[in-house]
Amino acid sequence: MYHPALFSPEDDATMADEKIPMTPRGLTQLRDELRRRKDTERPKIVLAIEEARAHGDLSENAEYSAAKEAQSFNEGRIKELEGTIALANVIDPGKLSGEKVVFGATVELTEGESGDDVAYTIVGEHEADIKAGRLSVTAPLARALIGRCVGDTVTVRTPKGNKEYDIREVKFLPAE
Questions:
Q1: pTM to 2 decimals?
Q2: Residue 94 needs a FRET pair 20 to 30 A away by CA distance; which of 11, 12, 26, 84 works?
């Protein structure tokens, strides 16, 4: 998380200009959530606030407090989504090629100890879902894979000790 005391003013300017990598699918998900929050959630919350106000004394009205808290959370999330979308650097994996692992690549791996085969697509933080095989670009395994090629072995430190993975295939699939 960003904290101003940890960065110099020069870092602030750099951070404001940083783009957030994501796939077209990730951008669509964010836009859908933004639209839902603005078009569905916001009106529902406004209605809940109006109904709670009608009950009288606001100082002891739990419904009013809950609705205002929901409104605050929703508006904060809307601002966060708008900021993320504004900084989006959309990368379509289907337009990439090569032998090295980069953002958007689908990487087929063999886990060294168990011999299990797994495949992960390296995606942006906001679209990661390990169960669906989408690995955040900031995850330790993704960071270890970036820049590597088929045949390379990477070692990743986990809470249960080091794990080795052999890269079997790197491919670039079209955006979903």
A1: 0.77
A2: 84
